[in-house]
Amino acid sequence: MQLFVGINFPKRQRVKMHRAARALRDRDLPVRWVEPEDFHVTLKSLGQVRREQLSDVTGALERVASGTR
Q1: Nearest in space to 9 (alpha carbons), one of 34, 42, 33, 39
Q2: Is the pTM of this model over 0.90?
Q3: What range defines the domain where residue 45 resides?
Q4: What is the C-alpha separation between 10 and 39, in angstroms, rounded?
Q5: Which of 37, 58, 36 has its CA nearest to residue 46?
Q6: In the chain, N or C terminus with fewer CB closer than 10 Å?
Q7: Beta partners for 45?
Q8: What Å distances lie between residue 47 and 5, 6, 7, 38, CA to CA?
Q9: What does the alpha-carbon distance between residue 67 and residue 62 come to, in Å, rounded to a whole number?
Q10: Cα dist. 32→16, 28, 41 in Å?
Q11: How many CB atoms neighbour CB 57 within 10 A?
Q12: Among 59, 63, 56, 44, residue whose Cα is nearest residue 3
């Protein structure tokens, strides 16, 4: 499965960001535009991860996230 590390935003913020990006969507930028409900910021693509690696990846991400607010 393809995995990535990303940041989700509250619905209200996603809608505001989607509106703010309206002018950019018509430009030829190296991004894939999505609907507000799918809006996120990808921090790191982990690529293809085997199912048996999933618990190790999840554990590592939980340890990192536990040190943030």
Answers
A1: 39
A2: no
A3: 2-65
A4: 10
A5: 58
A6: C
A7: 4
A8: 10, 13, 17, 19
A9: 9
A10: 18, 10, 11
A11: 14
A12: 44
Q: How distant, in Å, are the alpha carbons of 18, 64, 65 from that of 69? A: 24, 11, 8
Give pLDDT, residue 53: 96
Residue 58's pLDDT band, with cuts at 50, 70 and 90, is very high
The first and second tokens of residue 51, run together, are: 């199912």
| Cβ atoms of 15 and 48 closer than 8 Å | no
Name the average pLDDT for the chain: 91
Domain count, the chain: 1
